[in-house]
Amino acid sequence: MTSIEHHIEDNHRRRYAPARQYEVPERQVLHESIARLRAFAILLCMDVNLGEELVQVTLSRACVVIDPRGLGTNLTTWLIRLAATTIAKMHAARG
Question: Mean pLDDT for each 10-residue chunk of the chain (95 residues)?
Answer without folding.
Answer: 64 58 71 94 94 94 74 81 90 80
